[in-house]
Design goal:
Strand order of the largest sheet: 3-2-1-4-5-6-7
CATH topology: Rossmann fold
CATH superfamily: NAD(P)-binding Rossmann-like Domain
InterPro entries: NAD(P)-bd_dom_sf, SDR_fam
GO molecular function, one term: oxidoreductase activity
Family: Belongs to the short-chain dehydrogenases/reductases (SDR) family.
Keywords: Oxidoreductase
Structural class: alpha/beta
Helix content: 25-40%
Number of helices: 6
């Protein structure tokens, strides 16, 4: 059986690194972005998909295209986000409502839409196939609010909640959901240590897991799990 993956959010660091890792492990990989570089993506052995995460209603069509081109993906990665800086620094309500709505469409509504597609696909795959949905996260849901990060923080809080909910709701089906985030060696913000290769290593480890484990998955700059962190699934 051919294994395949769909990564929504094909940035040059995290998205591309994860895509190439999965390809190297034998996966067919489709990468979705608003303006895909078709020539470069194809040269890398990946499949470019045009999709706009600010329009969640278009994700089903993009997912259907992935299924036609490479088969139903058993690994789905949400790696998109949007960020609007307040026009008045430290004044979160100075952000135009339209900008706030746009950013939430990208980072929350599209997580829901893509997870909905993924679960529909997972149900058509053999039970022996690893089925994983991974959201690229950060520490914003777990630290004190940062006024300038209002739109990004709201997205990550929403994304983390959805992942936690889905991990619980679909546990009996063995559909695995992860909110994955790189942290420093002490569990804080990774800063300039943020690494595409670390994400690639960590995400591949998640794909190979035999059981759900922690939905909030934290890893360090070499891609290894940050062992001091634990959550209760329920």
């Amino acid at each position: 059986m051919t294994l395949s993956a769909f990564i929504l959010g094909a940035g040059p660091r995290i998205g591309r690194s994860v895509a190439l890792k999965l390809k190297d492990e034998g996966y067919k990989v489709a990468v979705g972005s608003r303006s895909p570089n078709v020539e470069e993506t194809t040269r890398d052995g990946l499949y470019p998909i045009r999709v706009d995460a600010s329009m969640p209603e278009t994700i089903q069509g993009a997912f259907d295209q992935v299924r036609r081109e490479i088969g139903t993906p058993n690994v789905v990665v949400f790696n998109a986000s949007a960020f609007t800086f307040p026009p008045i620094p430290k004044d979160p309500l100075s952000i135009p409502l339209a900008s706030f709505i746009h950013d939430q469409a990208v980072g929350v509504n599209s997580v829901f839409a893509l997870a909905q597609c993924a679960v529909q696909g997972f149900g058509q795959l053999p039970a022996s196939t690893p089925r994983a949905f991974i959201v690229t996260g950060n520490l914003l849901p777990f630290v004190a609010p940062v006024p300038n990060m209002v739109t990004l923080g709201s997205q990550k809080v929403g994304g983390a909640y959805l992942v936690r909910l889905f991990a619980k709701a679909y546990a009996e089906k063995d559909y695995r959901f992860y909110y994955a985030q790189q942290v420093s060696s002490t569990g804080g913000n990774p800063g300039n240590e943020l690494s595409g290769s670390a994400h690639a290593t960590a995400y591949w480890d998640l794909v190979q897991r035999k059981e759900q484990g922690e939905w909030d998955y934290r890893f360090t700059k070499d891609g290894s799990v940050y062992k001091e962190h634990r959550h209760v699934l329920g």
